[in-house]
Automatic annotation (TrEMBL), chains A, B:
PANTHER family: LACI-RELATED TRANSCRIPTIONAL REPRESSOR (PTHR30146), TRANSCRIPTIONAL REGULATOR (PTHR30146:SF33). Keywords: DNA-binding, Transcription, Transcription regulation. It comes from Rhizobium tubonense. Residues 9-63 form the HTH lacI-type domain. This is LacI family transcriptional regulator. Transmembrane segments: none annotated. The keyword DNA-binding applies. The lineage of its organism: Bacteria, Pseudomonadati, Pseudomonadota, Alphaproteobacteria, Hyphomicrobiales. InterPro entries: HTH_LacI, LacI/GalR-like_sensor, Lambda_DNA-bd_dom_sf, Peripla_BP_I. GO terms for molecular function: DNA-binding transcription factor activity; transcription cis-regulatory region binding. CDD domains: HTH_LacI, PBP1_GntR.
DNA sequence: GGCTCAAATGGCAGCGCTGCCATTATCTCT
DNA sequence: AGAGATAATGGCAGCGCTGCCATTTGAGCC
């Protein structure tokens, strides 16, 4: 298997082998400009024979305009982002674009560094999560001249294109729902809110809505670390240990809510009569639990799809609100 | 916000502005070769002032040798692949490499097309799932001269580097475990096995092991579609409807097993006394369910990490077996 | 046959950078 | 001070392709 070090076949060699000019080969391969059938066959035969693979690095440099789309995302553990990438990559592949990505771990400084290194590839667009970025990030992006797409958060100022929904509205709707159902002793279990600003916005809006109805948030438990099933379980356990007399708990995420749900199942805490649970995201798994999870379903895959669509068609600057859906479920 | 169409600053402009030669700027920016402190400051000042971002397209073309790593993965819905990407991207980012990816939907033809378009970027390495590829894919990869890394399946011939574990061994271990626990009427619930060849290998080996102990597989239910919690529930429901007298069920994945678990919870089927469940993957969520899921934990993040490490250090061809861990759990 | 027009084709500069080599400035040592 | 070494620097070809322009070819027509 020692086939390393081979010199790649170049367009010039194909031209030579086919007995035509370089530009002709280029035209044939891109189906751009005119050429005869006979020529095309000769070229394709040579391509086949030599095993030629076009060099897009050179092509991009020469034509100034790449088909790369850079995704700078906070995490791959949070299912949200794989879902977004999934929606986007389907559309990008159909349109002969390529996705590059990097993970920030919810760190704005790291985001800035990664955006810089992404811009070095002169992508057609840079896709980011949320609309909070460092001054430096925003400046670089604006100066780059490439398209900027901010996802999953419409509560802020967009740099160019934004696709998603309002987290504030989601938090508000969740609070209204719990209030309508009659819950009055409400708690919250969340993960690191400083880094995950979108979860922070939901929580803030949730509390404000409770406040408007003169229902204070009774207690909250913020676990260190990322959103996860385990943290949800631990968080609820601690919250209940401190404040047993709650009738509903709002979670920062479905992962967390599922952890809470399992905790209740294990402890025999009846849901929703003894305690109601409400999540966020609308994960598939929440629909299959013995009691479907009450939550807000977010359009994650669609967000990726729409973002990619706008990029490939080079759409004008705009804000696309894809909304969300409140799932009543059976846990609240 | 209409800042489109800007002409990017080039190295030549920086050189001009700093009053030095192009090569000097290049050396300073890459900390390669020698230059005085004074020069470095002048260059950096010019870079800062002009907002220069190096063009890695041009750099890569000139220096022949990219720091791109191409991932051609079957899916982003199956958590396995985000996990692998997560492990890999951390290492790649530390080593100034960039990850590009594309999704095949478990389609070998699509894989071939995507590999071709990835090779056009002249990546340092192409990372694939499994070791079954079309003839064309293998030929292109071998001819490309770039590193090839095949993940998560050691039961076959590797093209260059392979990192993962044996699915056959995992299937075998799962069968042995269920037999040791005394189960004798065993069923299987799986998803599309033609596309997911690794699940197919586990199942085959599982059956062979049962056979060696003269315990035939009693029944199986193969659901159409991907591995998911919902399909697991549906699958188990159908399997039990047809063959109620089972004492254990092996699932193609933890997702599926969780679906089965929820089905049992909802129907009041006692686990494991009435029915034992066994999964595959060792998802975090399986540790937090009221009864921890019995399963095989696979080193997904480590697989990505090790693969990336071998790529950045340009390690020789090799097979790295990271093994797996059987989790006894409480469902079998 | 000679003419026109469009289709088909080739030549070559240049995209922005790096690598090599030549040149110049700066030291070090006798 | 001068020779020789070393550090610092600039010039420029060329990576493989595309885009432009010039040229050739062929078809159609009077």
């Amino acid at each position: 298997m020692e086939l390393r070090h081979q010199v790649a076949v170049t367009l010039a060699e194909v031209a030579e082998a086919a007995g035509v000019g370089e530009s002709t080969v280029s035209r044939v391969l891109r189906s751009h400009g005119s050429f005869s059938d006979k020529t095309r066959e000769r070229v394709m035969a040579a391509v086949e024979r030599l095993g030629y693979v076009p060099n897009r690095i050179a092509g991009t440099l020469a034509s100034a305009g790449s088909r790369l789309v850079a995704f700078v995302i906070p995490s791959l553990s949070n299912i949200v982002f794989p879902d977004v990438l999934r929606g986007a990559s389907a559309v990008l592949e159909e349109n002969r674009h390529q996705a590059v990505f990097a993970v920030t771990d919810y760190d704005p400084q790291k985001e800035e560094a990664l955006v810089a290194s992404m811009l070095a590839w002169r992508p057609a667009a840079v896709v980011l999560a949320g609309c909070e970025h460092t001054e430096g990030t925003a400046k670089m992006l604006r100066a780059s001249g490439c398209r900027i797409v901010e996802l999953l958060d419409l509560d802020g100022e967009a740099l160019d294109i934004a696709v998603g929904f309002s987290n504030r509205a989601a938090g508000h709707a969740s609070a209204e729902f719990l209030l309508t159902r009659g819950y009055r002793r409400i708690g919250y279990v969340g993960h690191d809110l400083i880094r995950d600003t979108r979860a922070g916005k939901r929580f803030k809006s949730f509390c404000e809505t409770l406040g408007m109805h003169d229902v204070p948030l009774v207690d909250r438990e913020i676990v260190a670390g990322a959103s996860s099933v385990e943290n949800g379980q631990v968080g609820l356990e601690q919250l209940l240990a401190r404040t047993p007399a709650l009738d509903a708990v709002y979670f920062s995420n479905d992962d967390m809510a599922l952890g809470g749900y399992f905790h209740c199942l294990a402890r025999g805490i009846h849901i929703p009569s003894r305690l109601a649970l409400f999540g966020y995201n609308g994960l598939d798994i929440g629909r299959v639990t013995p009691q479907p999870l009450s939550t807000v379903r977010t359009p994650r895959v669609a967000t990726g799809r729409v973002a990619a669509q706008l990029i490939v068609e080079n759409a004008p600057s705009q804000i696309v609100d894809l909304g969300f859906e409140l799932i009543e479920g059976a846990t609240a």
